[in-house]
Amino acid sequence: MKLNRTYLFIGISSLALLMVLVIQVNWIYEAADVKEKIFNEKANMVLSKTADALTKDTSTVKSLKNGVSVSEKRKIDSLFNYYMKAYNIEIKYSFSIKPFVPTFKNEATIQNELKMNPGEGCYQTCVTETSPESGKGSVSKNGIDLQLVFPDKDEFIMAEMGIPFISSVLLIVIVLITFWRTALSLMKEKQISEHTTDFLNNMTHEFKTPLTNISLAGKMMVKDANINQEDKVRHYSGIILEENEKLRLQVEQVLSMTALERGEIPLRKTDLDVHQLINDCLKCMSVQIEDKHVRVISDLAAENFVIYADKTHVTNAICNLIDNALKYSSPEPELQIQTFNKDGKFILTVSDNGIGIEEEYQKKVFEKFFRVPTGNVHDVKGFGLGLTYIKSIIEMHGGSIELQSETGKGTVFIIRLPHV
């Protein structure tokens, strides 16, 4: 339920953020539209003011109908420059002059048609010798068409709104990144919290069992009237020592993982015979192997089996892999250990024919505290630290570890380590 609430929170927040993004983008487009309208108004005002100035100069309009001289072109250019500075327009422009073609339309229609494609940066008006005759619907034959063109209009508008546009985009990107990082961190913290809870439950259960056994053995030693018998003392003492060793190993595993994460475990590397190391691990676990009637297949075929590594930690890693294979074994357990050389590295594989690991969990098994769900968290002993420890140790030696597994058919762990 809590996890569903977390997803619901992330979903609502994502939707709200997307709405803000849509509003922001819409605002940018509206701002660009307003900027374009303002520019069009200014451009039309520049064109109108220039046309008015030329209209007052009758002789210039008459001469322009016959062609544009250099002096007249400079005069018109100076007028455009003057009014563009007055309206704060700093952009490249060009203009052209053509003979006016009279029409018999009302003045409003003429003016609308003469404003050509302002969206493409082109503006046009008519300059006449005399004003249009009121009520007649026509203009004087003596006039010219004056056209003003801004080829870089769009770039100018974007430059005008560059700061708000860029800042808006940056803010949107920052908010998106921050939100998703926060959401991912929240999900990760949620998973860590769940794994930590499982770890504490497992630890409490596993610490309770040996403590209970030690307590019972101690009480029996006190109450048993025949405690003077040597075999009784040896039996109860053996229980206490065995359970105490279990507690010590469990505490050491937790402390070692903590120290490993802090980088407080120094590696004392020496030349190691890995084949001898594997045989020693099998001997140490011979009691468990015999108790479960495990069939062990050992194929140590590597020609170069000496590596430069820390004996204690590499031994612990191999023993942990064998222990996992025994824990999750099938009713007719089989353990296969194989070594060989490939691509200049020493390869060790530890295989079992146990329950296997579902594909969705295979990438998570190396995470701290993670344990594959089995319906009962105490079915198999452990804290969920073993594979994390193994992966850390192997990587500290410059190697790598991966697994291949299929549900119901077993698991294969593959370790690659560099040679001396």
Describe the secondary structure blueprint for this structure:
Layout lengths: L1 H54 L2 H7 L5 H17 L7 E6 L7 H8 L7 E7 L14 E7 L3 H8 L1 H62 L6 H33 L6 E5 H11 L1 H6 L3 E6 L5 E5 H17 L6 E9 L2 E8 L6 H4 L23 H11 L3 E7 L3 E9 L2
Parallel strand pairs: 5-7
Antiparallel strand pairs: 1-3, 2-3, 4-6, 7-8, 8-10, 9-10
Helix pairs in contact: 1-3, 1-5, 1-6, 6-7, 7-12, 8-10, 10-12
Please describe what this structure looks like.
The chain is built from twelve helices and ten strands. By secondary structure, it is of the alpha+beta class. The model is unreliable at 113-117, 131-140 and 375-380 (pLDDT under 50).
Give a short synopsis of this structure.
The protein has 420 residues and is of the alpha+beta class.
Widest β-sheet, arrangement of strands: 5-7-8-10-9
Shape: elongated
- Tally of helical runs: 12
Mean pLDDT value: 76
Number of strands: 10
Proportion of residues in extended strands: 15-25%
Main sheet summary: 5 strands, mixed
Helix and strand content put the structural class at alpha+beta
| Termini Cα gap | 53 Å
The helicity comes to: 55-70%
Give the helices and strands as they follow along the chain.
Answer: HHHEHEEHHHEHHEEHEEHHEE
Rg calc = 43 Å
Low-confidence stretches: 113-117, 131-140, 375-380
Features:
elongated, single chain, alpha+beta, five-stranded mixed beta sheet, 10 strands, 57% helix, 420 residues
